[in-house]
Amino acid sequence: MAISVRIPTPLRKLTDGKAEVDAAGSTIQELFDNLESQHAGIKEKVFDDEGEIRRFIIVSLNGEDVRYIDGAATSVSDGDEITIVPAIAGGV
């Protein structure tokens, strides 16, 4: 099973500069466990100490924020596309 994961620029230092990597798993949690085994340090950038997706990170499955599905327990399938989006803060 191969699931494509798009990596934002700030995390690419953990993926040897790659903007996209493949990982395996049947849930978001398993996918990130697999990613961590390939790219040490990436999981702690996305998940907090309680195992929840960090407040200022969006993980989307085929364009939909997984928080509105089942969070880390969201099911993923071969061919899905995961995107990690760090929040952008600012204002005028």
Structural notes for this entry:
This protein is an alpha+beta fold and 92 residues long. The protein has one domain (3-86): Beta-grasp domain (Ubiquitin-like (UB roll)), CATH 3.10.20.30. It is built from two helices and five strands. The chain has helices spanning 28-38, 42-46, and strands at residues 3-6, 20-23, 57-61, 64-65, 81-86. A hairpin with a 2-residue loop joins strand 3 and strand 4. It is globular. The model has no long low-confidence stretch (mean pLDDT 93).
- Quaternary state of this entry equals single chain
Structural class: alpha+beta
* Relative strand content: 15-25%
Which stretches of 5+ consecutive residues score pLDDT under 50? none
User: Number of helical runs?
Assistant: 2
- What is the percent of helical residues? 10-25%
Shape: globular
Q: Radius of gyration over alpha carbons?
A: 12 Å
Characterize this entry briefly:
By secondary structure, the protein is of the alpha+beta class. Helix content is 17%, strand content 23%. The chain is globular and about 30 Å long.
Note the topology.
Blueprint: E1 3-6, E2 20-23, H1 28-38, H2 42-46, E3 57-61, E4 64-65, E5 81-86
List keywords for this structure.
92 residues; 17% helix; 2 helices; single chain; five-stranded mixed beta sheet; 5 strands; globular; Ubiquitin-like (UB roll); 23% strand; alpha+beta
